[in-house]
Amino acid sequence: MKIRIIGPCGSGKTFTAKALSEQFEIPFYETDNIIWDRKENKKYTLEIRNEKLRNILFMENWIIEGAQYKWSFESFEKADLIVVLNPYPVIRNLRVIKRFIEMQLGLKQYNYRQSWTELIEMFKQNREYDRSTFKSIVSVTEKHNEKRIIAKNSQEIFEHIKSM
Question: pLDDT band at 109, cuts 50/70/90?
């Protein structure tokens, strides 16, 4: 099974990908880790990024999650299921705040350490998602409508997969 999950900050992409990965024993990948060299704290070159993505896409099974969509069209082509996560904005923003607090207090490990500036940027990205990005993602994935679902939460995704 090949699943592509896309959505805004705090939508539950990573949570859902991990849950699906455990349930179906499929590896999952975060697009942020395809883009970022975490050891060097800098972006990979476009060539390295694209090669990392291609290597995943050639695997028999995968789950790829992330907000990025403008450079990862091939993941939509190759996916058996495309999930567009779109929870209510207040839920997303509360999750972003919770994650920030957990990071600042060292209660939970994440791939990065978020600053106040980055927190504010996430709120801006969420607002932009509601204004235009969601429509762009729906448009980009429209030609894959038969394998795309738009879900508010992971429960809807699991129910959809059970019905497949």
Answer: confident
Is the CB of residue 79 less than 8 Å from the CB of residue 44?
Answer: no
Per residue in 70-106, pLDDT tens?
998 999 999 999 999 999 999 999 999 999 999 899 8
Q: Which residues pair with 150 in a beta bridge?
A: 84
**Residue 119 near residue 41, CB atoms below 8 Å:** no
Q: How far apart are CA 66 and CA 135, in angstroms?
A: 16
The tokens describing 95, both together, are 């999750």
Strand order in the sheet with 28-30: 28-30, 62-65, 2-6, 81-85, 148-151
Confirm if 16 and 154 have CB atoms less than 8 A apart: yes
List CB contacts of 7: < 8 A, sequence separation 6 or more.
13, 67, 83, 84, 85, 86, 87
Query: What is the sign, positive or negative, of the torsion defined by CA atoms of 66, 154, 80, 57?
Result: positive
Rounded CA separation 84/25 (Å): 21
Residue range 125-161, pLDDT digits in tens: 999 999 999 999 999 999 999 999 999 999 999 999 9
- Residue from 135, 149, 148 nearest 76 by CA: 148
Backbone angles phi, psi at 39, to 5 degrees: -70, -40
